[in-house]
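BUG: 3D viewer hangs when loading the predicted structure for this chain

Environment: internal workstation, default settings.
Expected: structure renders.
Actual: progress bar stalls at 90%.

Input used:
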Amino acid sequence: MVPSPRERVLLSLQRKSVDSVPVTCVNQTATLDQMNSIQVFWPEAHVDPSKMAKLAEVAYMATGLETARVPYDQTVEAEALGCKIRMGRKDEIPSVVSTPFKEPEDIEVPKDLLGRGRIPAVIQAVKILRNDVGGQLPIMAGIVGPFTLGSLLIGVSNFLYWTLKFPEKVKVVVSSAMSIAIEYGKALLEAGADVIVIEDMSASTDMISPKMFDEYAKPPLKMVFNQLKGIKVLHICGNANLIIDKMIETKPEAISVGFQTDIGKAKEIAKGQVAIVGNLDPVKILLQATPQEIEEHSIKALEAEVDLLAPGCSLAPATPTINIKNMVETAKTFKRS
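Structure tokens produced before the viewer hung:
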């Protein structure tokens, strides 16, 4: 019996045998092609749970990506705590433009966290997805990792300066961010998410050293993963070659890595402890490359025995549908020896 996309993805994330390598995306999946096909657009789909869910559902129908994933940005938690957000146009991902926080003691985890900002919309979108496609597609919900949320709340430049000069301040902020991730993650699982994806972009070695990852990012991630009982994926952008072992030590079921990371090396270090997700370049390959180049890069990842083939980060909104389909079709026809 052929497994459903949901079964195929969830089994693969748990390192179990499947009929073929699933092609998914654990980061944002929406494109302008998808928006035009159903006349649902950003920024409305960032705030309206029905539109948010509808846009998540079309990713599989339009491209074959085996996922139904919300939300489409990494500013939900920061906005809920009081940061000012630029929602952008239909082709722009929202961003934090200012924060009210200056010092660690300024940040308090609100008692009504789950009722603030767009958090209720994301939770409701997950419930809609569970009802609409829960038997067919894996429902993925993204949250922001503690170190990255800390950087958004304090300001990235200030926060990185603190890692060098005021380590105790960093740890206080990250502890608050950790509490937010746990509470929000539990609510998303309760709403029906199969997979929680923690995006900890600022914990990349493009931003901090492996030693700093050990000191600031790894402990709160371990606590979050320990508290969340669903399937967890840790996504970190950029070149993760120097922290693959440290990512694994946080105890997710899978790690998702950027195109700069050597999949073969990641698999060797993982030794079957976690599934490896990735890692096509979302810009130079999926957005801009020829069909032949997309096929070549997909085969390269598949031959390196990636467990789930996927973009190495969020899809660019302008990504052509045909390019995503090329990645999907390559995996369908690929046969491992």
